[in-house]
Amino acid sequence: MYLGHDTEQAIAVLVDLINTGPETGDPERLPDLEALRAFTAHHHISDIGPMTKSDLAEVHELRAQFRKLFETTSDEQATTELNVLLGRSTATPRLTNHDGYDWHIHYFVPGASIGDHLAVEGGLALARVISEGARDRLRVCEAPDCARVLLDVTKNSCRRYCDSRTCGNRLHVAAYRARQKAI
Ligand SMILES: [Zn+2]
Ligand SMILES: [Zn+2]
Fold it and tell me: Cα–Cα distance between 27 and 86 in angstroms, integer?
């Protein structure tokens, strides 16, 4: 499954964003503006103005909305959620090749708030995933004590676990130990 570089990139940012939330089972990883600044720097999120406490609150709210898209069980449900999100955002497509990146399209309004930026870029990337018939590749990790999200881009659509806490590995080890015991 290849959704295109820009889409996969935008979804990777979303996955990371959602996985900073306490819903994952881990403590909040965006507790303050400093953490939010580090997040935007890490993901090279460009063209955003200075951030305030209200930006942080907006990002937390958006993060919860985005998470729902990974938990939906039908295209209709996902589309309803997504269109609410997209309806709130403003997009102005521009071609750019800033900071040594190849030509790519920015949809956010230059200087948009971090919330608008994420809503536009993340929202459109999710719209592409759904329109490609790939909504079921937006998943929640199946490890028992983990609720991180992931995008499955494997050929056979076989990815079940997130990689952030090596959930898949831990389960393999557990299964191995169980087998050993059984012998
Ligand atoms: Zn860019
Ligand atoms: Zn996991």
Answer: 29
